[in-house]
Design goal:
The complex is a heterodimer of chains A (265) and B (163). Chain A contains two helices and 19 strands. With 265 residues, chain A is mainly beta. The chains are: A mainly beta (265), B mainly beta (163).
Chain lengths: 265, 163
């Protein structure tokens, strides 16, 4: 079983995600047809790709190969998983993202009770009740990602924006193949996120006694390498925590997951 | 993952001939498969250089674009980024049996390939069936060869003759 990801829990506070890992699972990662469709499952679960809680599809979006961001054409919230569909008319690489922009929350204690308001440090100053102690503001972000490519891959949708906790896809996701090395770089506000522990898991854990999860740590450049032994679908989970003081927060708590497919050689 | 087992047999067939006129013959075999619903496989035949980049698409037998991605390696190496070449090389799917192809040793642009190490790939993918990838490494240096790749699920024994 997996450890509780505090960052995920706090950042998605409006959704009851509990201690689960949020992921998205597209029906396809590689497509060759014209005017084709994609269906995306989203769920929060302990076991990789075994749906447990159907989370709200309200924060689900898709970035087109030209960089424009869109809501899904149709979606449905289920008990175990939620689903959304969209037509993929353009050729190129799409980014599917469940989660929003970074959000601020301030924790404090009043009369011995821990409380929280959704406000940054400056906004919280006027909202905190009298006698509030142990005040800390964090910037939190939690998102689940997947990348889908129709015909020729491009990089517009997957180029890091420089804001928040992000993945720089050094190896293009359409090129992940068993026995070939995959390289990623993790970034925080566009700068390398060094020393971040990353967990990698593969589908069908339910049918293996040993799940075979792998933990890797990013190097000084924020980079990590992974050579998958098997073709299949994998989940990358990364959490970033730091006491980074800014005008708006005292700490940073971010997490992300990336669902990816490894093809046959 | 199960590796595709390949056995290579090489034998000098003829005396040395100059490189400028490569003549190669590929005999691929689509097996007879007894099944309730048989669809002809999608097949791609191509040559990659030592950097694993495709230099020549020799044949492509297929129907709808939706399933082109299932010829996995072909799609990654050629199909997804070379639509014009794909259209130019597209042929109808073939029935089970022996199919003979010829190749003049030239690349997609019609230039003779430089001497060196190359790999011939034959990939077949069948709807409601499996996918097989046959691979033959060869040296293009004017020496004649007969090379063989072992039979796989969706492809019987493959013969590659460089004359």
């Amino acid at each position: 079983m997996k450890k509780l990801l505090l960052a995920a829990l706090l950042a998605v506070s409006s959704q009851a995600v509990f201690a689960h890992t949020l992921w998205v699972m597209p029906s396809h990662f590689v497509l060759s047809g014209d005017d084709t469709w994609i269906s995306v499952d989203i769920s929060a679960a302990n076991m990789t790709f075994v749906p447990d809680k159907g989370v709200s599809p309200d924060n689900l979006s898709i970035v087109f190969p030209d960089g424009s961001r869109h809501k899904f054409a149709q979606s449905y919230q289920g008990k175990r998983k939620s689903q959304a569909d969209h037509q993929l008319v353009a050729e190129g690489t799409y980014l599917i993202e469940n989660g929003g922009a970074p959000r601020y929350f301030t924790m404090f204690e009043v009369n011995g009770e821990r409380k929280r308001i959704m406000a940054d440090k400056q906004a919280a100053a006027s909202q905190l009740p009298a006698g509030a102690t142990k005040v800390t503001t964090s910037r939190g972000q939690s998102k689940a990602l997947a990348v889908v490519t129709v015909k020729a891959p491009n990089r517009t949708a997957i180029t890091p924006s420089g804001e928040g906790f992000e993945v720089n896809f050094v190896t293009h996701p359409a090129d992940y193949v068993a026995e070939d090395e995959i390289q990623w770089q993790l970034l925080i506000d566009g700068k390398p996120a060094a020393g971040v522990k990353v967990e990698l898991s593969r589908e069908a854990e339910l049918y293996r006694n040993n799940a075979g999860r792998v933990t890797v740590e990013t190097d000084a450049e924020g980079k990590l390498q992974f050579t998958p032994e098997h073709a299949g679908r994998y989940l990358l989970e990364a959490g970033y925590q730091a006491n980074t003081k800014t005008e708006l927060a005292d700490a940073e708590r971010a997490s992300l997951t990336l669902t990816f497919e490894v093809g046959l050689p | 993952m199960k590796r595709i087992s390949i056995s290579l047999v090489s034998a000098a067939l003829f005396a040395f001939s100059p490189l400028q006129a490569t003549e190669a013959e590929i005999t691929l075999q689509i097996p007879e498969i007894e099944t309730a619903q048989y669809y002809r496989p999608y097949v791609a035949v191509w040559v990659e250089n030592a950097e694993q980049q495709s230099v020549k698409l020799i044949a492509l037998w297929r129907k709808e674009p939706d399933w082109l991605k299932d010829i996995r390696r072909f799609w990654r190496k050629i199909g997804r980024s070379e639509p014009a070449l794909v259209d130019a090389m597209t042929g109808a799917t073939r029935t089970p049996g022996k199919h003979r192809l010829t190749w003049d040793g030239k690349d997609d642009q019609g230039n003779a390939l430089a001497a060196g190490r190359y790999t011939l790939y034959v990939e077949a993918s069948r709807e409601q069936g499996g996918r097989s990838l046959q691979k033959i490494d060869f040296q293009l240096d004017g020496t004649p060869y007969l090379l063989i790749a072992a039979a796989a699920e969706e492809l019987d024994e493959l013969l590659f003759i460089i004359k």
